[in-house]
Amino acid sequence: MSSDRPPLEPLRPAFHVRFLTDEQLGALQEATLRILEDVGVKFPSDRALRIFEEHGAQVDRATQVVRLPRDLVWRALATVPRTFTMGARDPAFDLALGDGATYFTMDGCGVETVDLETRVQRPSRKSDVEMMARICDHLPSVGFIWPMVSAQDHGLTAPLHEMDACWSGSVKHVQSETIMGAAPVRYALEMATVLAGSREELRRRSPFTLVVCTIAPLVQDHEGIEGALEMAAAGAPVGFLAMPTLGTTAPATIPGALAMGDAEIISAVVLMQLAHPGAPVFHSIMQAWADPRSGAYVSYPLDGRWRYAPVEMAHHWGMPSLGACYGTDSPLPGTWQSAAEVAIDPFWAGLVGPEIVTGMGLVRTYTLLYPESVILDDDLYQRARAALMAPDLSEETLALDVIASVGPGGHFLAEQHTRAHMRGSLVRSLALQLDAEGRAYRDPVEVARERAAWILANHEVEPIGDAQRAEMARILAAADREIGGR
């Protein structure tokens, strides 16, 4: 067994691109401000409404709609930190957002798993969450951990058990997208404090961050916003994710959908800053389309250019971005569709530069887990990373002396320069793995399954200390009693 873990390999591109001009970003921002002023956002939370009232927002108690004057928006956004640290169980894997790197994670909220050994498809459970955390703990492409599937064997407290499984399976930072409500978030923060050592250390480098989804169109989720306020009070980073669907829960035009989703996010960010100035927050929009013929949810149409616009929108507001730059609608891994829909995303994400990105490893529109899928997506990530790296063009790599020595009609195989560089020059992808005889290339999906199994058999994760483990078990048991009724 080995506990050796490769260092992280985030995207650090040699160059960047702009997707939107300053004028276009200004137009989107102005549209957001007009929506906030003229239309408003519904906050079904008495706590939130009181905070807005205390700071001069226009609050309609009957409808729970809050309208935000733009001067109030700008005052609140002035306290948003542009950078913060996502702490890890092992400080060597802390992520300092804003250092020029883009860190990826897995996808989350899957509900079914295809068993790695039996190949039987079944409802997901807590052991699946820990299994995938262990696999991704080993992958240098994965900078932080999302619970990939739901712990359906733990009822109402499943999200807390998912966090527990992730911390058990990895020393990297853990981010939840399913913990909702003030009480569950308080339990999660209590568990995170056990790992951090103190509330002060949690505020400095929290091992736990939270993603809270808004409800399109222009509604905040009661449980989500109550939990987000708990996060802000503790100084733990919280992000807001809008998921507009063009043609149903959002306008059928992308700029309109993005402006509306942005208004949902900015309204929540303003609330956090009014309640707790300087609270670390991040921004994310994941738009999708409604198929006009079937009504089906479509994530990857032919034209997906605008997927990267929200990254620049977040930066234009002055906050970090969680990029929605991975995923597939394919029902199976290793297909033309699954590769085509995933392959372009890490490359463009690197060019545009979000601080963090979700999500690798699920198929069937983010609902089904094949454990080998994350290995296949890792391969595509590494291809993009190689394409974005600065090329090594030097006297050694130009090899002019060797070319002169071999000359016309010669052969390079016997040259010392060839022996020094040949193995490193050809970096094998999953598609270039040879069979036992070294004669034929193997099926990449089969190789991916074997790699996943190898990691589970050989990669050890440093365990949580006994005292911390016992305290976290106590917290989970209390949550099971209070929330889960067990």
Topology of this structure?
Elements: H1 22-39, E1 41-42, H2 46-54, E2 58-60, E3 65-67, H3 70-77, E4 85-86, E5 95-96, E6 103-106, E7 112-114, E8 121-123, H4 126-138, E9 144-145, H5 158-169, E10 173-176, H6 182-196, H7 199-205, E11 208-213, H8 222-234, E12 238-242, E13 245-246, H9 254-275, E14 281-285, E15 288-290, E16 297-298, H10 309-317, E17 322-324, H11 336-352, E18 356-360, E19 362-363, E20 368-369, H12 373-388, H13 395-398, H14 400-406, H15 416-425, H16 444-458, H17 466-482
Parallel strand pairs: 6-18, 7-20, 9-10, 10-11, 11-12, 12-14, 13-15, 17-18
Antiparallel strand pairs: 1-3, 2-3, 4-5, 7-8, 15-16, 19-20
Helix pairs in contact: 1-9, 1-10, 3-9, 4-5, 5-6, 6-8, 6-17, 8-9, 11-12
Explained architecture:
With 486 residues, the chain is an alpha/beta fold. The chain has helices at 22-39, 46-54, 70-77, 126-138, 158-169, 182-196, 199-205, 222-234, 254-275, 309-317, 336-352, 373-388, 395-398, 400-406, 416-425, 444-458, 466-482, and strands at 41-42, 58-60, 65-67, 85-86, 95-96, 103-106, 112-114, 121-123, 144-145, 173-176, 208-213, 238-242, 245-246, 281-285, 288-290, 297-298, 322-324, 356-360, 362-363, 368-369. It is built from 17 helices and 20 strands. The strands form six sheets. Strands 9-10-11-12-14 form a five-stranded parallel β-sheet. A four-stranded mixed β-sheet has the order 8-7-20-19, with no helix packed on it. Helix 1 (22-39) crosses helix 9 (254-275), helix 1 (22-39) crosses helix 10 (309-317) and helix 8 (222-234) packs across helix 9. The chain starts with 21 loop residues before the first helix and ends with a helix. The model has no long low-confidence stretch (mean pLDDT 95).
